[in-house]
Amino acid sequence: MNSERLKDFRQEAYELLVRGKDATKELMDAVMTTRNAACLAEFSLSPLFNRQWSSIYEALQDCRPDRKKLMLLYFQQLQEEAPPTEHILVAIDHTAWGRADAKTLQERTHEYHEGVIIGQGYSTIAWIPEAEGSWALPLLHERISSWSSPIEKAASQLKLVCEQSINPVLAVLDAEYGNTNWVLAQADILADCLMRVRKNACLWSAPPTYSGRGRPRKHGSKMRLNDPTTWLIADTAIEIDEHPDLGQVRVSQWLDLHFYRAPG
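Above: the chain's sequence. Below: its structure in token form.
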């Protein structure tokens, strides 16, 4: 990104902050250029933050960014980098923020983070622009309310991204989403999903041809991932003898498998 393009992007993002724009913009610059901060007020020590420390809290309280328009602005930059036919790779994750001592904090929920904790959960969907490395551009980062769930929030975020993207979308997710609930939640969303599945999960093959008697079957043979004796014959198998990083690799593909509660 050249300097003029960066200036235009920053100015457009600034206009979408709506309220408390100046203090919020300086805080954003301070956050991006400060390596470590023990508390929020330390960002006021940055040479890019030209206000008193209390302005940090006022900026966060007053700012009302237009999240949807900001995401559209991000997409403008993203789509200049990728041809329209190329998949956009996004990652979705649920992060827990422990707040056990904040007894007056509203909307605390039970979260799992190396055990059950009290706090708040956040769902993030981010664009992954590079094949290697850890750099990512968050498109949406939202708190999961007590009446919602990580899967419901992730599905709504993925739907919004797909509605705004002119590129096909590929979403990668961890094992929290590799289940029936996620398959049903994203059934109507125009995105390809690659999920990690628990090693003890069970999948079913397509049902046999209807015999003409009784109710048609919804499931075929059961396949337990942790029991190789139940594995069906793979539709495709690829072997790589000497992968530069992983050594010997074998990849098997089974088509038309489904979770029990998602046979369609």
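The mean pLDDT is 89.
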